[in-house]
Amino acid sequence: MSWEFGAAVALIISSAIIGLPIGHAMLASSVFYLLLQGQDMSIAFEQMLTGLYGSYVLLAIPLFIFAADLMNVGSLSDRLLDFCRALVGRFRGGLGHVNVVSSLIFSGMSGSAIADAVGMGRIIINLMTKDGKYPGAYAGAITAASAIIGPIIPPSIPMVLYALVSDTSIGFLFLGGVVPGLILGVLLMAMNAWQARIHDYPVEDPVPLREMPRITLRAVPALLMPVILLVGIYGGITTPTEAAALAALYAFLVSTVFYRSVTLRMAYQTVRQSAKSTAAVGFLIAGALAFNYVVTIEQVPNVIRGALGETELTRWSFLLMVNAMLLLLGCLLEANAILLVIVPIFLPTAVALGVDPVHFGVIVVVNTMIGLATPPYGLLLFVVTSITRSPIRDTIRHLLPFLAIMIAGLAIITFLPELVLWLPRLYGYNG
Amino acid sequence: QEKPTLRLSSVVSENDIRAEAFAEIAEAVSDSFDMQVFNGATLVAQGSEMTSIQRGNLEMGLIAPQTIAEQIPAWSIVTSAYLFSDAAHLKATFDSDVGEELNAMAADAGIHVLAPVYFGTRQVNLAPEKEIMKPEDLSGITMRMPGGDAWQFLGEAIGANPTPLAYAEVYTALQTGAIDGQDNPLPNDYNMKFYEVTSQIVLTGHLIGFDVLAISKELWDGFTPEQQETLQSAVDAAIAKSTQRHLDREAELVQFFKDEGLKVYEPDRIAFRDFAQKKYLESEFAASWPDGMVDRINALAE
Amino acid sequence: MTTPSRPIRTLRGLAEAVPAILLATMFLCFIIQVFMRYVMNSPVGWTVEICVIAWLWILLWGQSVSAEESDEIRFDIVYGSARPAVRRWFRVAFSVVLVGIYAWSLPALWDFVTFMKIQKTSYLDIRFNWVYSIALVFSVVSILRYAWIFWGALSGRDTGQSSIEDIGRKDFSE
Ligand code: NA
Ligand code: NA
């Protein structure tokens, strides 16, 4: 690795710390590297352009964002919440359970943790904090924790990114996330039950059972969404990328034609908002593509592989090390950036040590998603505190037990690859 | 004097036979060149190798002839179905005056061709059990072909309904029935385990698959004759070996797929060939082909 | 903040309509693609090409022409908690970095984009200099935007409060 590389990394870090948007920091530093090297400075832009142009799978991202935005604008989210409330609201800490279960179902339609937190999260936080039932910080904490599950259960934008950098099948990655997502959901509910006992959180008035059919019926269109996606992908109708469009079409039809809750004007606002979000995420990817060239030309993966080779790692110690490192990075870095820059560096070693790429992908995604909620730099943390308006310090305090149990869950997923690979194998995956 | 740095960008995976060949070349020329191989399209994006060389930002590339044809339409002739009969015919053509002509066009665009790199003969691989003897039998069969209109046209030229799809998604798509089939050389069918989700391989042999190993023309012209000789002979040795290994592998795999319970058979290749050549000659592609070149290439077949 | 004047709002509305229309187009193309393959059994390929071009333009347009500071993802632990006076100098520093680097590389970028007329897209035969021209728009507009930020910070008119007060309400997605 050259001194020019060191200078480029230093520029990324320093300019990002003083507030230059991360995408610009990566792109500008790549140009800076080429300038120092005396190479053609257009290479950074070329890498960005050809990388974006050639990555067809990335097109799922804008469509998954659009589908989730439509779900939130239409009343699908509200109906879903009513259903979850009737289902698990009757237990101690009921609304906490509702929070987790609604996230589990919503995650079957949304590929994004942030979309879950700003959509479903906002509604349920209001429910939880109304009449002072739960402290805002606790509502925020469990919302952030449960939103982590969003991209672990398919569909998933981070998994699309992982597939891009690893050449793994999106179809199998999606299947690999199902069981781990459910496990994490159960763990969160257990933690919520425990916290509810400690803090003596209230029980909701049980929804009468005779109400159930009506509430369920109202929620059916929302509940059907994950089914539509699965049938689309695994029934041979669409590719995983196209399934995102099918999901958006479904959300659009349900909210405009069926519920009539979305006007054309609202639909336009939604497209506009989705395009904005798309550009923000996409530009991070663009910056990472430019910087990846620098990482490749400096042969960084080889250097790290060489260094790892000398330490005689076993498969488990390697996974342990990667997990620890990703959790650490997750406190500081943006999740997409981690996926795009770090995965290509470690995947070759993982494969050489006999780690299955789908298993590795699920581990990495779970890990980076936990990173979204870890202080100091966690977007989920910022999102929920901006909704609850409670001090970030209190939110973090309430979040810690949930993070602890999530990390325990991550350990389980890491050391029992069968949990991840069982479903993909059932569907023909050979790993 | 410092050794010239040669960075080679290719899309092949690290454990591919061709990756070994590139490593052998790098090793063989190590006294004269610092050759660095970047496989898996990690250095430049797939399809950008040629422009990167032209702009002086890359020294060597494994370039698909379809990419060259985007700039030099005449090159689309070597991407057409049933042009070469086998790997030997491919090599003979590039060694002949036809090859000289094609290479001269590439040289005008700033690319010096070192060798065509054979990677297998494309065969049709289908999930449905329907027997395929003529191109008409493929009518209505949705077949995944690589993206881009040259590839899609190849699918039409053998009578199928071509559709583009990311390579990593082909397995699932075959299994779910989103597509009926795909076309690839047998080693790819093996590596991607397509044989698990398909029922038959039709040995259409519709395209002799190859890429072009190329180096910057400007760079090449600046080498001493000794340097040129060193590089060229290392390339020739490694690629000849790689070609033979591909051929052996393909022969082996026919038996393997049969043992796996697939039907592997040869259709009426003459019918396919006539159908495809007619399609090509009627297409816009043929308009750019040098007069008489098809006949000259045909004449080189043994 | 003062409310922008009417022409400014109209321009902003138009600027934001571009990525919105492109996203809607992308959505439609995907639907057509599935419909043609699954229902009509007659797959098309040109839809993919429109989608990747739209994707490229959505992001580069969206992060330059129609970007607001709150749309940009930044690392805001230090930046967000800095005193306004300090943040002002942060803004001076990072805008100098960005304007300097993008301006310096602009001729090279121009050279690359114009060179790419040598290739055409596969289905629609659009020359790549047109496809990639958005990178020039992106670079020029970014230079102007950040020069404006530089000037605002230097003259003390803007401390970047607007870029942090919305933290968390940005609806970007992981
Ligand atoms: Na939740
Ligand atoms: Na999800």
UniProtKB/TrEMBL annotation, chain A:
Q: Name one GO molecular function term.
A: transmembrane transporter activity
Places the protein is found? Cell inner membrane
The function of this protein is: Part of the tripartite ATP-independent periplasmic (TRAP) transport system.
Please state what the protein is called: TRAP transporter large permease protein
Q: How does it sit in the membrane?
A: Multi-pass membrane protein
PANTHER family per the UniProt record, alphabetical: C4-DICARBOXYLATE TRAP TRANSPORTER LARGE PERMEASE PROTEIN DCTM, SIALIC ACID TRAP TRANSPORTER PERMEASE PROTEIN SIAT-RELATED
One Pfam match, by short name?
Answer: DctM
The organism's taxonomy opens as:
Bacteria, Pseudomonadati, Pseudomonadota, Alphaproteobacteria, Rhodobacterales
Ranges for domain TRAP C4-dicarboxylate transport system permease DctM subunit come to: 12-419
One GO cellular component term: plasma membrane
Keyword hit for Transmembrane helix: yes
Ranges annotated as spanning the membrane? 6-36, 48-68, 104-125, 137-164, 170-194, 215-237, 243-262, 274-295, 315-333, 338-355, 361-387, 399-423
Organism, per UniProt? Answer: Primorskyibacter flagellatus
Read off the NCBIfam families from this record.
dctM
Q: Does the keyword Repressor apply?
A: no
Quaternary state and partners of this protein? The complex comprises the extracytoplasmic solute receptor protein and the two transmembrane proteins.
- In which family does this protein belong, per the annotation? Belongs to the TRAP transporter large permease family.
Q: Which UniProt keyword terms apply here? A: Cell inner membrane, Cell membrane, Membrane, Transmembrane, Transmembrane helix, Transport
TrEMBL record, chain C:
Subcellular locations according to the entry: Cell inner membrane
Top-rank taxon of the source lineage equals Bacteria
InterPro entries named among the record's database cross-references: DctQ, TRAP_DctQ
Q: Per the database record, which ranges form the Tripartite ATP-independent periplasmic transporters DctQ component domain?
A: 26-152
Indicate the transmembrane segments per the record: 20-40, 46-67, 88-110, 130-154
The similarity comment for this entry is: Belongs to the TRAP transporter small permease family.
In terms of PANTHER family, this protein maps to: 2,3-DIKETO-L-GULONATE TRAP TRANSPORTER SMALL PERMEASE PROTEIN YIAM
The task this protein performs is described as: Part of the tripartite ATP-independent periplasmic (TRAP) transport system.
By what name is this protein known?
TRAP transporter small permease protein
